[in-house]
Amino acid sequence: MTSLQSEFTRFNDVIRLGWDDEQAILRERRDAVIDQIRRRIDAPGFDVFNQGSYALRTGVKPVDGDYDIDVGLCFRTTRETWDPVELKRRVCAALSGYNVEIRRPCVTVQYQRRGEPLYHVDLNVYVPAPGSDTMLYLAVGKHGDAASLKEWRYTDPLALGVAIEQKFTPDDREQFRRVVRYLKRWKDLSFPHEGTAAPTGIALTASALQWFAATMQRDAVANRTHYRDLAALADLVARMTAHARPRLAVHLPVPPHDDLFRRMNDEQMQVFRDKLGRLADALRAALADADDASTSDTLRRLLGDDFPAAKHTSPRAIVSSGAAG
Amino acid sequence: MTQDLARLAEHLCSAGLLTDARVLPADALTAEWAQFHRIVQAIDGTARVDGRDLALCLGLPIEFPDCLPKVFVRDPELPGRIPHVFPHGYVCYQEQEGVLLDRHRPVEVAREALARALETLRRGLAGENHADFIEELALYWPGDTDGLTFFTAGDHIEEVFRVILPFAMTHGFVRDRVQARALILSDTLAPLAKIPKVAEAVDSAIEESWCRGLYIPLRTVPQPLVPFPLGTWSPTQLARLIRENLSDEDRRTLDGFTRSIKRDTFVLLRVPRPRGDHHLVGIRYDNVRDAHPLARTPGAASISQFRVERRDPGYLLQRGGAAAGLRDRRVLLAGCGAIGGYLALELIRCGVGHLTLVDPDFLRPENQHRHVLGAPPMMLLPSKAELLAAEIQRRYPGVHAKGFTDTIDRAIARGAVDPVSFDLVVSATGDPNVDRSLNQRLHPRARRPSLLFTWLEPLGIGGHAFTSPRSPANAHGCLDCLFTPHACDPAPALANRAAFAAPGQDFTRELAGCGNAFTPYSSLDALRTAELAVRLAIEVLCGEVTGPALRSWKGSRAAFDAANYRTSDRYDLAVEDLERLCIDLVAERCPVCGNP
């Protein structure tokens, strides 16, 4: 049985989007954008909250360099008072000087260098839903959309985070987040430029919420728990594969209860399912492989070169015993 | 006080225990029975027991209510007729030992005591406890204690001998002259025995007091005589007690011996008790005339009965709470330091009969406050192993203890000790390198002893004992499993998984430069660790532990914290888990017993 847990730990450290330099820059950008909206917008006041992988702490560093951050702007008004696209237009207007685009679910602020996307901040525009502390209405639609596509969509943007918090113990939750990051990095590598052909990060996260089981081995002598990320990832992918018959469907536990894979057509789902199946097979083989080096090679093919080659660590050979008789 | 006693008398009457209860006047308490039993207050009365009216007395000793009150029956026919009634009519209804009294309710204590005494009398009169005469024969056996027995009280009639032990100022009952000589000289005078004149003097003293006698173990539990003699038994009564409870073969053996003994002699009699175990009591026959008084045609003799104190190892071990069946077990102990010292003595006290000690070190004054032997004697380089072995031999005659001044590895290599010849090998060296080497040497052997390793950690944080009992070769679970990192450990390090100290810390201190490093711990830490290890060792020797087992005790972390040391996650385990949990001991990749 191989574990390569120290390699997984290092891999996670490399790919996780944490409170490091990149995230600091993102936070600065976000704060600058919000500050400008507050100063210039011709609309009611709003409250700000983080959402998406930033809030869930499941973010991974992008392989294409396009970092993103999701922000919720909850305007203190009602859906009866404002047209959703008009409110998004006001946000857009307040950000003159920025490269801003109104997209159907959000307003995106792009930062580019030499024409290549560097960062983007997705601004999600909400108004509160009366009678609820958590439910909001999301402004959906853009200019030129048919009236049926413009709506205030009833949703709870923080529900997934709450469900994750409630389902796992703190240590198990950390393994959950690590495994989601591995899966998202695999997705970024396996679907590099495929748009809606790729499963979304939130769809993979919700899948993990449904099928992930914390996997560990206990050392009752040392009173320590050793998490086995390889086994947890293999188990999750096997379960997802088993449920993709023919389509994988995962629904959020709160309205609007959408299937998070709904945007993938059958052909795209087929591709996803095939890739997921190959991942499951490879992980199963890796798990059965007793040789650390060849297991590491397998994982580098699946998860990319950021997964470290197995290194034979040599612990100190002379230590204090702390024993006497 | 008199009023209290009057109220007690009324209470006993109203409880239906006594009629005509009255407080005895003070002058009545000057009588012999009251003086003998230290009675300072007493109530007389009558009780109806088993259809008879019995005159009774409830006497309160001066210590009452911190001791039981005493009950006397005034019927002169009862002593000897029913058990538990002794001279002066004293009724033994309850042993004082092991009793807790409600000292704030003395009246209730007295009432319950009287009720119990009446129940004892009722059972006696109804014949329900007649066998108690034999069960408690030693209590009824007349005569004083007159000697110590050292021979092994076995299952067969045999000749034993009486000799005067001049230093003990009493008789010794021994199996032969060699034992007599060893007892008279004792270990301290043993070297003098090499001087011919001393040896002659000792032999001459032995010869002067030498007396042949018989040890007779009765086969069956005797029926109590009726009435049961509370004083000296008659020759006929004694002869009947003995001859009627022997097998035919024993009687023939006895006849053979009695034909050859025609002078002053004695008998030590082993009498089985109805509820198991037995008594050992003595009969002295002086001025024997014509024939041995136990011969088929008995001769005459002056008879006196006596009691003995037993000093034979089998009895002493059992009496001292030692585990049965350990006398033949052989234990090899490597390491006779603080833990090993305590461990050696406790193994012996628990009944282990053969102990071989190996330690290369010498007892040094700087360790006197944590070593069981204390300060070393005024001699150069006193060997720990040899001193400890000598101390065991001195304190516990009959035990085999031998010491070797060597490392365990060298002692094995040069053939001084053969580990396979032992039931259990214990290592208390406190050096994990020595322990792991020993484990690697012995654990894979097809035929190996059980192994037990024990060590402690500094500053009172705790101690451990690990065993891998004798089992088929290459059975999983050995000491090295504790040093093998878990297969899923993301940061494997060289450390003992059982340790309470977090890895990577140094605890040795030096008081006077290189070569004087020591680990700070106290005698109490060593004692507690030794106790843990001995309990585990006994369980292994008794076959109660058959798989790998780890036991730990944890102490206060105060000194540890004060010195800015860190504890491991294991230290956080509950005490009961540390004492009993035996899972995850086997390491998958253990280089000694696993699949590396």
The low-confidence parts of chain B are: none
Shape call of chain B:
globular
Overall pLDDT level of chain B: 91
Question: Compute the gyration radius of chain B: what is it?
Answer: 31 Å
Query: How many separate domains of chain B?
Result: 3
Query: What is the C-level CATH assignment of the largest domain in chain A?
Result: Mainly Alpha
Low-confidence stretches of chain A: none
Task: Describe the protein.
The complex is a heterodimer of chains A (325) and B (596). In chain A, α6 packs across α7, α8 packs antiparallel against α9 and α9 runs antiparallel to α10. In chain A, β4 and β5 form a beta hairpin. With 325 residues, chain A is of the alpha+beta class. The mean pLDDT of chain A is 91. The longest helix of chain A is centred in the C-terminal third of the chain and has 23 residues. Chain A has ten helices and nine strands. Chain A folds into two domains: 154 residues, Poly(a)-polymerase, middle domain, CATH 1.10.1410; 141 residues, Beta Polymerase, domain 2, CATH 3.30.460.90. Chain A is globular, with a radius of gyration of 22 Å. The two termini of chain A are 37 Å apart. In chain A, the strands form two sheets. In chain A, strands 1, 2, 3, 4, 5, 6 and 7 form a seven-stranded mixed beta sheet that branches. Chain B has 596 residues and is α/β, with parallel strands linked by helices. Chain B folds into three domains: 128 residues, Ubiquitin Conjugating Enzyme, CATH 3.10.110; 173 residues, no CATH class; 261 residues, NAD(P)-binding Rossmann-like Domain (Rossmann fold, 3-Layer(aba) Sandwich). In chain B, 30% of the residues lie in helices and 22% in strands. Chain B is built from 18 helices and 22 strands. A seven-stranded mixed β-barrel of chain B has the order 7-9-8-10-11-12-13. The radius of gyration of chain B is 31 Å and the shape is globular. The model of chain B has no long low-confidence stretch (mean pLDDT 91). Chains A and B meet through α1, β8 and β9 of A and α11 and β18 of B.
